[in-house]
């Protein structure tokens, strides 16, 4: 193959990618709201459906699917619903430990307890050892079931079972179809079906179509070249953001890191004297086409965040919101149109925040 043809191959590949027919997903009640996949709302809804007596008319369906999923992931010898009276299960949200930490979901029944940490967008840096100690010591659970629920199904903490949304909600969907062939006969059946579909479509990798499989098989080497270029581009963006942070503030050595967000391409930047405040430049939306900025304020009280919102809105229209854990953040009202403009806004954000946070 000539060098000229080799140079054309990636362009031909990009044209074929653009020509692929996109699968249009029907909106759900949660996708219309736009926030149904964040940790707190997802945990609230999951807790509701896990409670057998919550009035949703589904009984222990969600609970049984949870135990069945965990038996596959953690081994049937450790997790089994056999002999358990699941209809007597209590489900609590944000259960406080003796040191003020909060457990996402705490399930308790006669002779057993389960801790579920829901990790949608956040890294697994919770005090997992403390959660386990608390449940063993204060709740009398000799062998608690410890679960990390995430899109990838990974558990980085020793003794915890990793469970993916795809495994759990796929089993719930199957159980719902078997138990209630016509879920639309009940309003809660409709609600559960929408919740399940939204989670599976939002947090799980969709199946590939035949044209997509053919495209990869015929262009595997070129696809790998593009992936390598994407990795190099990420390094370039990290260095560009580091350069702009230094230029904006006059301070060297900012902390710049690539964030592991499942469905966004994100880079965070901060300085030690900013405390827990961090600016994040990220791409989101379908095919990561939207460019956005947000500022995580974490331990800052909401009353102190609003004046900062007003200052940053002079650069780009911004508003105060909450992250997946309910902590305050500042987000742009609309996505930015291009990369250079977004980096200019990032630089101005950095300058403004540094002036406020510097001693």
Question: Care to describe what's here?
Answer:
- Helix content is 45%, strand content 19%.
- The protein has 359 residues and is α+β, with helices and mostly antiparallel strands.
- It folds into three domains: 3-23 and 207-218, no CATH class; 29-203, no CATH class; 222-357, Yope Regulator, Chain: A (2-Layer Sandwich).
- The strands form two sheets. Strands 6-7-8-9-11-10 form a six-stranded antiparallel β-sheet, with helices on one face. A five-stranded mixed β-sheet has the order 1-2-3-4-5, sandwiched between helices.
- A hairpin with a 5-residue loop joins strand 8 (278-284) and strand 9.
- Helix 4 (61-74) crosses helix 6.
- It starts with a helix and ends with a helix.
The biggest beta sheet is recorded as:
6 strands, antiparallel
Record the strand order, biggest sheet: 6-7-8-9-11-10
Number of domains: 3
Structural class: alpha+beta
How many individual β-strands? 11
**Roughly how much helix do the residues carry, as a percent range?**
40-55%
Q: Which radius of gyration do the C-alpha atoms yield?
A: 23 Å
Distinct helical segment count: 11
Q: Name the beta content range.
A: 15-25%
First-to-last CA distance: 61 Å
Please provide the ordered H/E string of secondary-structure elements.
HHHHEEEHEEHHHHEEEEHEEH
Mean model confidence by pLDDT: 81
Low-confidence stretches: 1-8, 32-37
């Amino acid at each position: 193959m000539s060098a000229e043809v080799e140079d054309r191959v990636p362009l031909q590949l990009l044209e074929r990618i653009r020509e692929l027919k996109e699968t249009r997903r029907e909106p759900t009640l949660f996708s219309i709201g736009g926030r149904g996949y964040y940790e707190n709302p997802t945990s609230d809804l999951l807790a509701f459906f896990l409670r057998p007596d919550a009035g949703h008319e589904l009984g222990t369906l969600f609970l049984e699917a949870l135990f069945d999923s965990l038996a596959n992931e953690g081994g049937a010898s450790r997790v089994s619903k056999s002999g358990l009276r699941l209809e007597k299960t209590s489900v609590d949200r944000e259960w406080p430990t003796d040191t003020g930490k909060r457990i996402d979901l705490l399930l308790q029944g006669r002779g057993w307890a389960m801790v579920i940490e829901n990790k949608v967008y956040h890294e697994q840096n919770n005090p997992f050892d403390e959660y386990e100690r608390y449940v063993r010591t204060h709740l009398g659970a000799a062998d608690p079931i410890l679960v990390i629920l995430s899109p990838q199904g990974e558990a980085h903490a020793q003794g915890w079972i990793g469970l993916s949304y795809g495994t759990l909600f796929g089993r719930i969907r199957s159980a719902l179809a078997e138990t209630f062939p016509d879920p639309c006969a009940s309003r809660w059946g409709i609600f559960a079906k929408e919740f399940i579909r939204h989670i599976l479509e939002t947090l799980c990798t969709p199946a590939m179509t035949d044209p997509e499989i053919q495209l990869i098989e015929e262009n595997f080497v070129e696809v790998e070249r593009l992936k390598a270029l994407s990795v190099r581009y990420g390094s370039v963006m990290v260095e560009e953001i580091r350069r702009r942070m230094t230029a904006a503030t006059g301070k060297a050595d900012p902390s710049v890191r690539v964030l592991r967000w499942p469905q966004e391409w994100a880079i965070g930047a901060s300085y030690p004297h900013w405390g827990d405040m961090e600016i994040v430049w990220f791409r989101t939306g379908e095919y990561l086409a939207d460019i956005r900025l947000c500022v995580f304020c974490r331990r800052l009280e909401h009353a102190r965040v609003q004046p900062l919102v007003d200052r940053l809105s002079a650069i780009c229209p911004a508003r105060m919101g909450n992250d997946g854990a309910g902590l305050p953040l500042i987000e742009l009202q609309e996505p930015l149109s291009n990369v250079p403009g977004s980096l200019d806004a990032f630089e101005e954000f950095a300058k403004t925040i540094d002036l406020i946070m510097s001693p």
